[in-house]
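Pasting two entries for a bug report.
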Amino acid sequence: MIDMHQISMVISLLVATILGIIVGVEREFVRKEAGIKTYALVTLGAALFTVISFDPNFSDPSRIIAQIVTGIGFIGAGIIIFHQNKIHGLTTAAGLWVMAGVGIAVGMRQYALAVASTIIILFILFVLRKLKVEDRLHVFAGIKEEEEK
């Protein structure tokens, strides 16, 4: 028989998946290495492990949560590539890492924190890219020439 506790755990997994999909869609629009499926799986997995870690049979949920952070760091390291004097995939790796944090927040039923974090992440990925903040900083610092329009 399914009880209310199990239903609330499933709701947590669905919320985590939806938040991962939202950020994954933004990443798909800019054709990044990790997209909808990757972001959804990272947030779902982090939420799942977090929900499981609060089972009374586990004495210390923080150990499992710490391993989520380590595991995502390992995945992120595999995404980062140094090619022709440039680093590629760093934002993708950071995005997956922070989305694991969103999944952990959802798994701990901190829904407002998870949604607010997702909104901030989208601001960083979408709005800052549209405003070309990094390009403007590079021009200001003299690292890059201003492009003619």
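Entry 2 (this is the one that rendered wrong in the viewer):
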Amino acid sequence: MSMEENNRFGDLLKYEADKNYCREVMTLASGQNLKMGAVVGIKSATDEIKIVSIADEETDGSDLAFGVLLEDTDATSAAKKALVIARDAILASDCIVFPNDATADQKKKITKDLEKRGIVIRQSA
């Protein structure tokens, strides 16, 4: 029998400038159950966090990567507060949760969006 241990906070977050500057507490839109490390975008109309949508037709802001969840957040039945790394941090690449259907090019775009916010994704040691 094999066991697999879930990632921990320290596995994902390798460096941040200052937690009071780098982190944001935001509202995760209802109907979602996201894992730590999930890349999120912001719906510009509501300021609710949702997983980054790669669909070209999205124009609500959720097609741009805003940050990465720092904790598992279950908002399946109702919107819930979530802790997000929003700027100036280094994260481990093997802990980042991209959308399931994201292509290599889409992952590169997401990574570039995050880099514009000072969030760097590095290969883990």
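Dev reply: Rendering is fixed now. As a check, the viewer should reflect this: The two ends are 27 Å apart (CA to CA).
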